[in-house]
Design brief:
elongated; 6-stranded antiparallel beta barrel; 29% helix; 10 helices; alpha/beta
Length: 326
Amino acid sequence: MDTITLIRNNYGELQLPPNSFIPTAVAATVGTFDGVHKGHLFLFDQLFEKAKQEKLPTMAITFDKPPVAVVRPTHPYELLTENHEKKLLLAQTGLDYLVILPFDNALSSLSSEQFIRTILSEILNVQYLVSGYDNRFGKKTIGAPPFDPETFCNLLGMKFFRALPAFDKSHYEYSSSRIRNELRNGNIEQANQLLGYTYKLKGTVVTGNKLGRKFGFPTANICPANSHKLIPPDGVYAASAYTITPLGLKELAKGMLYIGTRPSLDLEQEKRIEINLFDFSEDLYGREVVIAFEKYIRNSERFETHQQLIDKIAEDEKTIRAFYGM
């Protein structure tokens, strides 16, 4: 998959970067694709089908940041995938091209007609547009009649297809918002099923106060790489840790992850993300790791004595080792 990021020239116009190549005609779809989940894969399947019929290469067009970050800059938002994750997941789909648009105020101000004409048609040579079933292009003009993308595309000589939505076996729609809700509620296994892979968090191992080592359960404290990455709720999880290599992720070990403050220790109430890795003794300080969430075990609790806490952690370890068949 070739990845191309559009740039703005000295006149503020979007253009292809030097030495980049776009075919004279492509079949494309547009979206934020946060999570690159099973619903997105169903959309891409429909794109591949139309592209095959037309004998066209395929292209996904996305943004360097979620539109809400520009349109509503003070509004909080949570991401399922950071940009590097999204690129890796999209590369696995079989797409020929990934185009990343810099989402800024200028792009957000484009009307639907301007977006399709200048970005899709004139710059990216889109000949067949496969739209998500609920996708909308460009800025909505208050008081204007409803925009019909199919009619406008046809005027430009561009074919248009409104894709079908994807539903699971229970007839619920796959969506990024649904997955976020599952993660916020600690429904890790359900979220992973909707994603089609285990939810992951990248961060750097930082120095803690080493109390876990004192209690016999040394932990690696994780500082998330992206402040907008969705963090599941406080509690204990079965999780795996990976290191990043040129060939992809390499598993370090499985273990038990804790998110939350330390109510039993009467220490500072800063939230921590720390993982105890089973049968692992390497020094990870300063290293970048990826944590894969695999099962929610229990919520955060307060214990009256340190021994009660230690006993509960030992019980957690037994539960999680059994989950992994260790």
